[in-house]
Amino acid sequence: MSGPERRAKGRLAIAPSLTPRSLEKRGTPVQAWQARIITLFPEAFPGVLGLSLTGKALKERQWALDTVDLRPFGIGKHRNVDDTPAGGGAGMVLRADVLGRAVDMAMRGTPDDRAQWPLVCLSPRGRPFTQAMARQWSQTRGITMICGRFEGIDQRVIEHFGIEEVSLGDFVLTGGELAAQAMIDATVRLLPDVLGNAASIEEESFSQGLLEHPQYTRPAEWAGHEIPPVLMSGNHGEIARWRQSQSEQLTQERRPDLWAQWRAAQD
């Protein structure tokens, strides 16, 4: 393992390397789902992934996280990783030769079948990330993510490796690290035994094509607001119908795009 181990305060230690670590050497089961992250800021990981249920699952080796530091692949004395855009324009672009070497390294030992090990780049121009995509990724052996920076990455790298561009939403971040953590979190929680309650996954937003119904808990009355009586009735059939009605109403009001898709699927 090359490179010193880095530790963020109050977080699990994730060591960056030029070569992805052997799962067998560190005791992680070979079959454990793995995320490999190419990034200029390996110290940003695990970040929120080291907390709560994802952090617990990481400690228990139910999944693995490796960061590949892009900087050592850089050019010259200062390890430059970017250059000005061809044809002019503002900002900088990650170089093809630098990123290409990092991708080659990060993909070592992974299946040739991208359906078993996706290679994605976090980009605002990519296909929108969805719950269905998270479920699909959770059924693979692992994933390699490239965290974009500056104005993006050289298009030739995307075409050469057949990289899939994925977007967290219709907005621009300074880099892909936050998007990568969000997508990994959404995926890891779908791995077997991570949440511990499979029913909660089936009932949450997007799992059935609708937004989730409102949730309530004790006290029965708070600040003059009461829990809807149907939820206190003990009639499970009525409760199920109420929750379905609420999900449909919320989806129709807030996400007409999802509502149209759901209605079409019912026909």
Pattern of helices and strands: EHEEEHEHEHEHHEEHH
Cα-atom radius of gyration: 22 Å
Q: Summarize the main sheet.
A: 5 strands, parallel
Which architecture name of the largest domain does CATH use?
3-Layer(aba) Sandwich
Query: What structural class results from the helix and strand content?
Result: alpha/beta
Averaging pLDDT over every residue, what do you get?
Answer: 89
In short:
The chain has eight helices and nine strands.
Describe this entry's structure for a reader.
The protein is of the alpha/beta class and 267 residues long. It has two domains: 33-188, SPOUT methyltransferase, trefoil knot domain (Alpha/beta knot); 198-266, Trp Operon Repressor, Chain A (Orthogonal Bundle), CATH 1.10.1270. The protein has eight helices and nine strands. It has helices at 52-59, 96-106, 131-138, 155-161, 177-188, 198-203, 236-254, 256-266, and strands at 33-39, 63-69, 82-83, 93-94, 119-128, 142-147, 164-167, 221-222, 225-226. The strands form three sheets. Strands 2-1-6-5-7 form a five-stranded parallel sheet, sandwiched between helices. Strands 3-4 form a two-stranded antiparallel ribbon. A two-stranded antiparallel sheet has the order 8-9. Helix 1 links the parallel strand 1 and strand 2 (63-69). Helix 3 (131-138) packs across helix 5 (177-188) and helix 7 crosses helix 8. It starts with 32 loop residues before the first strand and ends with a helix. The model is unreliable at 1-11 and 22-26 (pLDDT under 50).
